[in-house]
Every structure is written in structure tokens, then in C-alpha cells.
Design brief:
The protein is of the alpha+beta class. The protein has helices spanning 2-7, 10-39, 88-91, and strands at residues 45-60, 69-74, 80-85, 97-105, 110-115. A five-stranded antiparallel sheet has the order 3-2-1-4-5.
Length: 122
């Protein structure tokens, strides 16, 4: 690296010698992270249906900036999931039983999201 630093004008030799390795590492990191975000494939979600679950508990995690209520819901298969309501209208859906939207990702992972009660009313 010293051979390349000596080719620079005298004014740039000291900063290049002191900060050159850090600059090269930052440049490699920037290129690698840009390539990751450009070439990664997103995990698309597909709607898989609605189900009704029993609300076990709710707790408020709001602060001065946003409204947020989290709930633990028991699904019909016996597993428990956590869902969140980010508005007061959605929080009113968390009374006794609530409607849950099931979404499947391409990777096979299942995601659950709070849904309007009208979606399960059939």
C-alpha cells in the first residue's frame, strides 16, 4: 500500500496512509451491501385464509408518538400467536374472539395478521 501512497501528491499521502485501509474497507462494505439489496429476492406472501382465535390477553405498548396494542391469541390448532393492533379501531376487534388472517411465504413460513371481524363472519 505504501507504494501506491507514494504515487499520490504529497498533500494526500498522509491522509491516504492513515485512513486508506478504512476507506478501502468502507468501499468494499458499501459495494457488498448494495449488491445484496439489488440482487436479493423478496419473500412474497400469499393469502392463505382467515381463522377465528380466542383472545387470551392484551397489553398496551403505546407511547406519546403511536398507538399500539399487542394481544396473545389462541388458534384452533392449540398454538398461541402474538398480533398487534396499531389503531384504536383495530384494538376494538380484540374483545373475546378475533379474526386472524393467515399468510404463507414462499419459504414456507406462516405469518398471522389481525383482520376485520367481517372477514370471518360466514
Amino acid at each position: 500500500m505504501n507504494r501506491f501512497v507514494r504515487m499520490l501528491p504529497e498533500r494526500w499521502q498522509y491522509p491516504a496512509h492513515e485512513w486508506g485501509a478504512l476507506f478501502v474497507a468502507g468501499l468494499v462494505f458499501t459495494i457488498a451491501s448494495a449488491a445484496y439489496f439489488i440482487y436479493r429476492t423478496p419473500d412474497h406472501h400469499v393469502h392463505a385464509g382467515y381463522m377465528t382465535g380466542k383472545v387470551l390477553s392484551t397489553f398496551d405498548t403505546s407511547d406519546e408518538l403511536r398507538f399500539d396494542v399487542r394481544a396473545v391469541v389462541a388458534l384452533p390448532d392449540g398454538s398461541n400467536i402474538a398480533v398487534r393492533a396499531q389503531s384504536f379501531a383495530m384494538a376494538q376487534w380484540l374483545i373475546d374472539e378475533t379474526c386472524i388472517e393467515v399468510r404463507k411465504a414462499e419459504s414456507g413460513r406462516t405469518y398471522y395478521r389481525l383482520a376485520a371481524p367481517t372477514n370471518c363472519a360466514s
